[in-house]
Design goal:
The protein is an alpha/beta fold and 233 residues long. It has 10 helices and 6 strands. This is Phosphonatase-like hydrolase.
Length: 233
C-alpha cells in the first residue's frame, strides 16, 4: 500500500475490541449451556468452554451448532442472548478506553467505519443502544447479514460493497480474535490489526495473519492515518 491507496474503510469488531468485555460473554455462554444441563465441574462443560474460547469471533449460533444438534443449538443461543441482555442491564457496558475517540478520529478523517460482530442482530442492537453508538458508525453488520460468518470474509466484503469501496486494499480490519484476523486476510484488507484487549493473545493473533498487533484500538487511527504509532508488525 502507498500514499495513492489510502484506507477508506475500517471494519471494527465489537466485544473485546471496541467494547470492554471482561467475562460478560463467557458468563452468558456458561449460563446458556447450563440450561442444557452442562455445568461447571464436568468434562462436557470443560469441552464446551474450550470450544467457545477457541471460536471467539465467530457467530454465537455457529458456536452452539458446533456443539449441539440444531434444536439444542437454537435453545442455547436464545438462552445466551437472554443472559447477555440481562448482564448488560445489571453490569452495563463501557467502551474500551480510547475506542470512542478512535471512531471519531477515523470518521473525521474521512474513513468510513463499519462495526461488525458475531452477535445476532438483536444483541448487536442492545450493545449499540447501551453505548449510544448508533451514530458512531456508517454501517453495522452481524452474521444475519451474510451467507457465512467469520473467519470467512463475507462481513468485510459486504461492508465494502455497501459502502462503495473501490479496492479491498483500501480496507483496514481490527479485532481481538484469530477469526477476525483470518477474515481480514481473506478479504484482501491491507491492514489486519489485532488488539490485546480481548479473547486471543499476541501469538495467536500473529499466527492467524495479523499485519499489526496493537495494545488497544486507541492506536488504530495513528496506524491508519499514517502518523507515529506503537505498532508491532
Amino acid at each position: 500500500m502507498n500514499e495513492a491507496e489510502p484506507i477508506t474503510l475500517a471494519c471494527l469488531d465489537l466485544a473485546g475490541t471496541t467494547v470492554a468485555d471482561g467475562d460478560t460473554v463467557e458468563c452468558a455462554f456458561a449460563e446458556a449451556i447450563a440450561t442444557l444441563g452442562i455445568v461447571s465441574g464436568t468434562a462436557s462443560y470443560d469441552r464446551a468452554l474450550a470450544r467457545f474460547r477457541d471460536a471467539r469471533g465467530g457467530s454465537k449460533i455457529g458456536i452452539f451448532r458446533s456443539l449441539f444438534d440444531e434444536p439444542r443449538a437454537r435453545a442455547a443461543h436464545l438462552a445466551f442472548e437472554r443472559s447477555y441482555h440481562d448482564l448488560i442491564d445489571r453490569r452495563g457496558l463501557t467502551p474500551v478506553p480510547g475506542a470512542a475517540d478512535a471512531l471519531t478520529r477515523l470518521r473525521g478523517a474521512g474513513v468510513r467505519v463499519c462495526l461488525i460482530t458475531g452477535f445476532g442482530r438483536g444483541t448487536q442492537a442492545r450493545v449499540l443502544d447501551a453505548l449510544g453508538w448508533w451514530d458512531r458508525a456508517d454501517l453495522t453488520l452481524c452474521p444475519d447479514d451474510v451467507p457465512r460468518d467469520r473467519p470467512w470474509p463475507d462481513l468485510v466484503l459486504t461492508a465494502a460493497l455497501r459502502l462503495g469501496v473501490d479496492d479491498v486494499r483500501h480496507i483496514a480490519v481490527c479485532g481481538d480474535t484469530a477469526g477476525d484476523m483470518l477474515c481480514g486476510r481473506r478479504s484482501g484488507a491491507s491492514i489486519v490489526a489485532g488488539v490485546l484487549t480481548g479473547a486471543h493473545d499476541h501469538d495467536r493473533l500473529h499466527a492467524a495473519g495479523a499485519t499489526h498487533i496493537l495494545p488497544t484500538i486507541a492506536a488504530l487511527p495513528d496506524l491508519i492515518l499514517r502518523t507515529p504509532a506503537n505498532a508491532d508488525r
